[in-house]
Amino acid sequence: DTEVTQTPKHLVMGMTNKKSLKCEQHMGHRAMYWYKQKAKKPPELMFVYSYEKLSINESVPSRFSPECPNSSLLNLHLHALQPEDSALYLCASSQLATGGRNEQFFGPGTRLTVL
Amino acid sequence: AQSVTQLGSHVSVSEGALVLLRCNYSSSVPPYLFWYVQYPNQGLQLLLKYTSAATLVKGINGFEAEFKKSETSFHLTKPSAHMSDAAEYFCAVIGGGNEKLTFGTGTRLTIIP
Fold first, then answer.
1. Dist CA B27 CA B72 (whole Å)
2. How confident is the model at residue B17 (pLDDT cuts 50, 70, 90)?
3. Which of B43, B103, B106 sits opposite A107 (nearest CB)?
4. Is A85 helix (H, G, I), strand (E, B) or coil?
5. What are the residues facing B90 on neighbouring strands?
6. Ordered alpha helix ranges (H), chain B
7. In this predicted model, what pLDDT tens digit does every residue of B41-89 receive, in sequence order?
8. Within its chain, how far is the Cα of A95 from the centroid?
9. Under an 8 Å CB criterion, which residues of B touch A?
10. Exposed, middle or buried: residue A67 (CB in 10 Å: 0-12, 13-18, 19+)?
11. Is the minimum CB–CB distance between A65 and chain B shorter than 8 Å?
């Protein structure tokens, strides 16, 4: 299985809602990532988990809360978002190797709209 | 710090013509370079990667790229464009033991029938 899955595909939420994005991989990868992608822009890194521990937080606002319950799952909890948070949220995974030799595998993304 | 620059935000080629998408890198250490493709409303798919094993790298869908240290380039080519190649292409770099993948600004490839 060489696939990263993400649910839901689309999500519409109000600014007072609480929702979660889910990502799953069964490739035995020990690094998982969240990216945010605005239209016509490259993905921007948000968080990196290595061995289920948060290793990089790119100064993301606290209304985004990541969680890695086990080596296959990655969640992104959303609360009190702003309309400018509307974007495509991409999850990725990779094997861990020094120097970054291993490519990241991306999921199809969740299209988030904040009203 | 590592970075990549993609020259040309939009490239149009005729079906059957050569595809050339340009990427130049800046890295203080030997880089690991990647090309990803993104079709509309989809995630990113890896086309190919350079990890210092060979300077000419062959990828999926007939694409290849050549690492040229003297020119700090890693341009993506395909001899004959197909309509299905229309997409956004991103060059990306990792280097120096850092887990962070840094993307270029992307090139939108349009194929003219």
1. 9
2. very high
3. B43
4. helix
5. B36
6. none
7. 889 999 999 987 788 999 999 999 999 999 999 999 999 999 999 999 9
8. 16
9. 32, 34, 36, 41-46, 49, 51, 90, 94-101, 103-106
10. middle
11. no
Q: Which of B70, B89, B73 is nearest to B25 (CA)?
A: B73
Going by the DSSP 8-state scheme, the letter that residue B42 receives in this structure is S
How do residues A49-83 score in pLDDT, each as one tens digit?
A: 999 999 989 999 999 999 999 999 999 999 999 99
B84 is written with which tokens? 């299905």
Instruction: Give the pLDDT of residue A2.
Output: 66
Side-chain half-sphere of A93: how many Cα atoms within 13 Å?
Answer: 25
Q: Are B64 and B48 in contact (CB under 8 A)?
A: yes
Residue B28: both structure tokens together: 């203080």
Q: What are the C-alpha distances in Å from B109 to residues A55, B10, B21, B32, B91?
A: 35, 6, 9, 24, 13
Residue A98 to chain B, least CA–CA distance (Å): 5
| Residues forming a β-bridge with B75 | B66
pLDDT at B41: 83
What residues form DSSP beta bridges with A64? A78
Q: Which of B41, B49, B104 sits opposite A103 (nearest CB)?
A: B49
Rounded CA gap, A88 and A10, in Å?
A: 9
The partner residue sitting opposite A109, judged by closest CB among B32, B43, B95, is B43
Q: Which residues of A touch B34 (CB under 8 A)?
A: 103
Q: Measure in Å the smallest separation between the Cα of A10 and chain B Cα atoms.
A: 11
Instruction: Report which residue type is found at A93.
Output: S
Residue A115 identity (one-letter amino acid)? L
